[in-house]
Amino acid sequence: MENLDVQQSETRQERRQQKLKNDKEKVKGEKRSGKKKKKLRVKLIPIWLRIIIVFVLIVLFFFIGTMIGYGVIGEGEAFDVFKPSTWTHITDIIDKGTPSEAE
User: Fold this and answer.
1) Cα 97 vs. chain centroid, distance in angstroms?
2) Which pTM was predicted?
3) Which helix (H) or strand (E) holds 81?
4) Contact 67/79 with Cβ under 8 angstroms?
């Protein structure tokens, strides 16, 4: 039994040494050829689709932000932000000032 353990450990050591030797030979072969293996990166989403997705997200978050700003912070109805009369009122305030200042 003891002899079997010694024999197994010797074979393990031999395998480790052989593996190290093989690894060293691979590295030497790569140095000689001067070529390094490049890792290929597979792009799942093409760049043009990424640009479109970012643009759509910007527009979406703009509308969500205006709804939150007008509905929650401004204490108005959230969907009133899409009415043209709301925007004309906003531009009038910006151009002419607040109603109390205009009087």
Assistant:
1) 43
2) 0.49
3) none
4) yes
